Amino acid sequence: MDTPTNISLSSSIPISDSLEYKTVSVFLVLLVCGVGIIGNVMVVLVVFTTRHMRTPTNCYLVSLAIADLTVLVAAGLPNVSDSLTGTWIFGQAGCLGITYLQYLGINVSSCSITAFTVERYIAICHPMKAQTVCTVSRAKRIIAGVWIFTCVYCMLWLFLVDIQVGPDGHVQCGYRVKRELYLPIYLIDFAIFYVIPLLLAIVLYALIARILYLSPLPHQPDTSATTLRRSCRDTSEAARPGRQGRPKSALSSRKQVTKMLAVVVILFALLWMPYRTLVLINSFVSTPYLNAWFLLFCRTCIYANSAINPVIYNAMSQKFRLAFRGLYSCQRLEGNQRTQSAIQSGFVEKYKSIKEKI
User: Fold this and answer.
1) Nearest residue to 55 (alpha-carbon basis) of 248, 319, 349
2) What is the pTM assigned to this prediction?
3) For the domain bounded by 14-202+259-357, which CATH number is listed?
């Protein structure tokens, strides 16, 4: 029986049954997935609840965050049960559904990165065209198209995996047909969702860097950008009373956003490289390389890629940093208001009871 390479599954090598492996595996997966789930949920919340954060670029970042959440939930969390029990416990429906969601999240994240890279290129290198092309409504339509296309494309996996039971009774979610027949699929996935996006990103970010660092930005009256900077300035001043907030220039703001998105792309390339390379090599060799510790390293890199993006936004974007703080402050304020309301209602009830006795 061929051993599957789905990212949620463990190796059948005996070392994966050791207490040391299970402890390290469960700890790493829970830590990375926990941080990633909280961070990506916060990204979605701040963009939906903060008006000045609803920009075309942030719409693509929300799509990326939802895709990363899908990867963490569909790939990371099942890995915990698989490491603890050493067998597949979710049945045939779980095998099909979880595998489908894994590849859906992976492919949508790649498409979202490509989309915001193209959006940044148009916004910076073709500012006049960006006035009509780089809009929130267009970004929403593109995101909807990406998700529809990827949902249809990933349906292929519903016919390629199934439950398999080994001679020792070990249950796995594995290949339905021979491993050699999956080579074209893996090559297409590798090209469409890894190689082509990275090559496109290299070219476009090189052109963006030439405009930002070697050529002056053409002057463009942009009232929406002025309004956005004023809104960010007001938010900054509200967050730091007593300080005079000074809005950044358009050039400085664009450099900051572009650097942040470039870091997202670079980490995507680096953290996905071990797994993509392993799958590609195993598709050609007669005996696949399935060392348990290396598979754990590959999976941890994938989960880390889905978890690290909110950390990058917080570290490199002042707007996201202030929005995260604002979300936290609103939650604390809401909690305090609920507490005060409960106390006040308690006093009212107590006063009424005393009055009735009198």
Assistant:
1) 319
2) 0.80
3) 1.20.1070.10
